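Hey, resending since the last one bounced:
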Amino acid sequence: MAQFENIFRSSGNPLPARPPFNHILMGGIGGVVAIAVLALMDANIEAALLLGSFGASCVLIFGFPEAPFSQPRNIVAGHVLSSFVGLVFLTMFGPEWWSLALAAGLAIALMMATRTVHPPAGSNPVIIFLAQPAWDFLLFPTLTGAVVLVIVAWVFLKLSKRSAYPAYWW
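The structure tokens again:
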């Protein structure tokens, strides 16, 4: 029984501190604004701008704008790189479980190697294998949507004075 207790034992660290209420509020509002902009643009320009992983990107961008994962370089390059890998593997090997697994692993490794890690982008190969889009998926929604997210974040965070965003551009 003691061996099972050791398996589930945590390090004993306390929970992180709760962010200030205004950060929580602005994080939620930032997510609303960013997804609303993408959704409205998506509906009005007849080009796909929504990607499931963009919701998770908003968590990082508006909840933790100072984090390296939230910087424009990581958001744009992470999404584009991961989608590119997903499209390459889908095209070369088809929608096989092992192809998806290799694409996801390679996307992670490449983001780490290029210092463009953006955790939500790690789901892009999975999204690509589920949807099986054409190569234009790389431009719409991946690149264009990621750039719009960064622009919305930059404007919103400047106006809200929540953060000196970004810490770096590229």
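The CA atoms of residues 93 and 138 lie 18 Å apart.

Sorry for the duplicate.
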